[in-house]
Write a structure and sequence with these properties.
The protein is an alpha+beta fold. It is 31% helix and 31% strand. It has two domains: 11-80 and 274-308, no CATH class; 101-264, Aminopeptidase (3-Layer(aba) Sandwich), CATH 3.40.630. It has a twelve-stranded mixed beta sheet, sandwiched between helices. Strands 8-9 form a two-stranded antiparallel sheet.
Length: 315
């Protein structure tokens, strides 16, 4: 007879997903209706698959399940607290995660108090030049616009662009997975889509799941007008925050700062599940190998990467 499984029994399975823009299989475990995935490495780490959109309901139960489930072995479990719940409330080992978050009171407040006159002037200039920004449906016209922007250049911000070379059908399939929680915002110039945001609704905040604009129209301040519309939409949906993923120290961080985003610290916890996990946490292996590179060397490596991709952009 086939085995009868309880609704609360964990389920281990492989799930088709995208990793760096490419199809891949992710090893997962489902615990009480929430999916967690595992990243294999020197220390295997488990995290909630949709951590931008969901809270871990019961960390203690998840930890116990990960330790005792046959056929699923991991070394560390990590989770964080989402906005606005940013005061640490667990006794597990904790580090601060830095995200870019914009408090949203109203569009008028953002316009008059959270951005500088330079940004206001850029947005006014863009509008005067004829750039129009509006909410759109995820239809074939929208996907054609996405495809054209994605295939404009193989290199963006000094690195190979994940979605370059994809055709219409691939983009339509890959980007239609989360339409149930996303709003499309698009910028148009003379009938051509020159940029868009796929704005996710995470309940407590809006999140810029995808924001990109055409390089040939960079003089139109497209991303600025897209952010302006996203703020307007967050106010309409009563979302008190707009999140632009992680904070950084590059030129993108400066753009975020000028648009009113602030560096916001979120508590992230790390729970060892094995002896290896305990050692990895003590040695800092959980942060990844990139964290061991000194900032000066890391900057030089990024510059070398940018030059390399610049020289081989036609390859």
């Amino acid at each position: 007879m086939p085995k009868v499984t309880s609704a609360n029994e964990p389920r281990v399975f492989l799930k088709e997903t995208l990793i760096k823009g490419q199809p891949a299989s992710s090893e997962c475990i489902e615990i009480d209706g929430q999916t967690y995935n595992i990243i294999r490495g020197p220390a295997s780490m488990v995290s909630l698959e949709e951590e931008w959109y969901e809270d871990v309901r019961d960390p203690e139960r998840v930890i116990e399940t990960l330790k005792t489930t046959p056929g699923f072995k991991a070394d560390l479990f990590t989770f964080w607290q989402r906005l606005p719940d940013i005061e640490p409330k667990y006794s597990f080992a904790m580090e601060w995660e830095e995200i870019a978050a914009l408090p949203v009171q109203s569009y008028d407040h953002w316009w008059n108090h959270q951005i500088k006159s330079r940004i206001r002037n850029l947005i006014r200039k863009s509008e005067k030049e004829g750039v129009e920004v509006r909410q759109m449906a995820f239809d074939d016209d929208f996907v054609r616009g996405m495809t054209a922007i994605f295939n404009e250049a193989p290199v963006r911000q000094g690195r190979r662009f994940w979605h370059y070379g994809k055709d219409f059908e691939t983009i339509k399939r890959q980007f239609s997975r989360f339409l149930f929680r996303e709003d499309m915002i698009a910028a148009y110039y003379r009938g051509e889509m020159i940029g868009f945001i796929m704005l996710g609704n995470a309940g407590h905040y809006g999140v810029t799941g995808q924001i990109i604009s055409a390089i040939k129209h960079r003089d139109k301040s497209t991303n600025n007008v897209l952010i302006a519309k996203a703020v307007e939409l967050c106010e309409k949906k009563k979302l008190p925050w707009l999140v632009y993923l992680f904070w950084s120290t590059d030129s993108l961080a400066e753009f975020k700062r000028r648009c009113g985003f602030i560096k916001t610290r979120i508590p992230r916890y790390f729970v060892p599940l094995t002896t290896r996990g305990t050692l990895a946490l003590k040695m800092g292996v959980h942060r990844g190998w990139k964290e061991f590179i000194p900032p000066g060397i890391k900057k030089s490596l990024k510059q070398l990467r940018s030059r390399w991709y610049g020289m081989h952009s036609d390859a």
